[in-house]
Design a protein that fits this description.
The complex is a heterodimer. Chain A is of the alpha/beta class. In chain A, about 35% of the residues lie in helices and about 25% in strands. In chain A, the strands form 2 sheets. A 6-stranded mixed β-sheet of chain A has the order 6-7-8-3-9-10, sandwiched between helices. A 4-stranded antiparallel β-sheet of chain A has the order 2-1-4-5, with helices on one face. A two-stranded antiparallel sheet of chain B has the order 1-2. Classes of the chains: A alpha/beta, B mainly alpha.
Amino acid sequence: MSTSGMAVMADRGADLAVEGIHTAYGLSQVLFGVSLDVRAGECIALIGRNGVGKTTTMRSIIGLTPPRSGRIVWKDRDIAHLGPHRICRLGIGFVPEDRRIFPELTVWENLDIARRTGADGRTTWREEQVFALFPDLAEIRDRRGGVLSGGQQQMLTIARTLMGNPELLLLDEPSEGLAPLIVEQLRQRVAELKATGLSIVLAEQNLQFVMSLADRVYILEKGEVRFTGTPADLQADKSIVQQFLTV
Amino acid sequence: MTLTMFTLNAFYGLALAMNMFIIASGLNLIFGVLRVINFAHGMFYMFGAYIVFTVTKSWGAPFFVGVLASALALGVIALVIERLLLKHLYGREHLMQLLFTFAIVLLMSDAAKMIWGTDQYSVGYPPGLGGAVSLGFVVLPQYQLFLCIVGPLIAVALWFVVDRTRWGRVVRAATQDREMLAALGVNVPMVYAAVFTAGSALAGIGGALAAPRVALVPGMDATIINECFIIVIIGGLGNLWGSFLGALAFGFVVQFGTVWAPNWQDVLPYVLMLVVLIIRPWGLLGRPEVG
């Protein structure tokens, strides 16, 4: 992508602005005033150790665990109080960490139920396009979701969300539990998605996976944003990695 | 037992099975998707039968208009119950749902007494289906023959919708992961409402079709709901063809039990259920571990 192209996109301002959200599961509060923003076509990474609130931030945005306070603004509209299906239909796609493939449905059926015209009327992603991006899925289209390997499930869960033609992809720990070779394939696929202009929020623990993809990085700890910067900033300051990411 | 008597009994068993399947499939569909055991399903069946009586006897409309009216009326009643009340109970413990659907039974039971009183009614066979068909060695009543055709037709239609349409795929996904389905843009509460409506309409149709072969009396709902549970448990919870098989087993056991062991006829369906539960605790076509 050219630098001028990036500049044009940045001029449009933030598509998604999360403003000081507090989110809890019952009595257990997980997020304490998280704020972040994503510009059109940008890939931001949420990184941090297990349990710092990466998944909860994703679940808050898609509406599965709505925040108790704070705002989530998507294209100038507060979506914090909407149900997940409404938020999805406004152009936000969620790829959960645990993949959540429908086990009794075939690969094709998993894709079919997610089929949707984009909020902006786009139909960029149909079966042919997702099968072109993930050719392995085309070969197992009649296999039941429950019998797929971890790598296949991860491809399918991304492909399934793409069928809804989102403008923003929430990608929760895609590399988790996958073999290094598969992780590298996946990284290339995500890079291709980014190159199409799709905005991405990527939660990861795998720093290497993030570095080449993200435009900006947010480090979370104990439900708060502790660092914001570019991957280069992060690389320049080893103490940050030490403090927030080393186990 | 002569071949003629055997064939006739098998045929009556089959007709009973098909009528029961139509009702039980609705109960099973609702359980499979909503995970709600709807005790009011038998009451919906009874309303279906009474509505056919009113539409045909009091209004003089044709029988099949009555069947359609039953399906529509029960669909509307179910939709109102679901949207106003039941939807607040998903995810709560099963006891709450059981108490709620039982409350619906009590309310509708009193409503039925207010509308229709406590007299016994009967509905005649529809014109053209009141006769008999001779196969040479045995003569079969037309209405039962009609039930033997309608039952499999409904089974195939249900299978087609659930297995072969996008709507059915969404319904099956809802039984597996409601939250993920919502995140993919599906309005899951509407899917639940539609399934509850359709399942209840099946109870209405089942009741309407039963009306010519049973006596319409208060309390007819209680027997049916027990029998439906037996069928669904025998076949496997949430499994369409399981209910079909369960209904067949039930129909034949009841019919031949009446002939061969009349003193035991009330107990035999329960014995059947116990035997199945001991051999396959998850039912004939069900799977171990549900939800």
